[in-house]
Amino acid sequence: MLKKIFIPAILSISLLIFVGCTDSKPLTDETIETTVNTTSNTVESSVDVQTTAETEEVLTPQSLTQPTTTEPTTTQETTQPVTTESLTTLQPTTTEPLTPQPTPIENFEYELNYYGDSMKITKYIGYDIRDVVIPAEIEGMSVTYIDSEAFFGCDWITSIVIPNSVAYIGYYAFFGCNSLTNLVIPYSVTDIGEVAFGKCYSLISVVITNNNTHIRHNAFIMCTSLVNVVIPEGLTVIEKGAFSDCDAIPEETKMAILKINDTAFNYWSESPQP
User: Fold this and answer.
1) Class assignment of domain 105-260?
2) For the chain, which has fewer Cβ within 10 Å, the N-terminal or C-terminal residue?
C-alpha cells in the first residue's frame, strides 16, 4: 500500500528537479510551493482512487448467479388461537329440536283404515311417555285417522303433537287427558269428533288453524281451564254444545263463537257414550 502511494510522488519530485535543472529560469519559492501543492493533490487523488477500488466488492459470475436471501420478518401473533371451547360459545343453543322426533311406533296400536290406503291410530300404549308425537307415517303409509277412544283416559300425557297428515279425530279420542295443557289442531284436520277432548281439565289453550274444520257436538265439553281459543276467520261449523261448561273462556271469545253458533255453549245430550 505504501509503495503504491510513494512511488508516484517520488517520480513527480524527480521530474520537477530535472525540469528545474534544465530550465533556464531559476526556481523561486512560489514555483516550489506550486509544484508541491500539485504533487500533494496528485498523491491524494491516487490514494482516493486506490481506497475506493479496494473497498468495492468484486462481482464474479458466481456472485451474480447466487440468489440473495433476506430473513423474513415475523410478527408476533396477537390473536388467540381458536379452540373447541371458543367455537362452542358462538353456536346458538336451542332447548328443543325444531322438528320433534315421532314417538316410536311400538307405543301405538294401529291398522289400515276402511279403504286400505292409509293408517289409523287405534290405541296409545306408551304408559311411560308423557310428551307424545304422533308419527305422520307408519310402514310407509300416512297416518290420517285417530280412532275413537284412541287416547281415552291417558291422564299422564302432558303434551301431544298431531301431524299434518291427520284428517279426522274420532269421538272421545282424547277424553279425560287431564294433564294436557296446550293443543294445536293442524291444518289437515277437517273433522273433530264429538267429545273428542271432553274433560281435559288442565287444557288452557286450543288453536284451530283450518277454517274448514268441523267442530262437532261437545267436542271440548267441560274443559274448565280453557281460556284461550283461537279460531280462524271463516270457520262456519261449530255444533251445539261444542264448548259446553267451558266457563273460563273470556267474554269476547264467547261472543265470536256465538256468532257462528248461538248454541255452542249449550249442552248437547245426545252425544254417544264411550
Assistant:
1) alpha beta
2) N
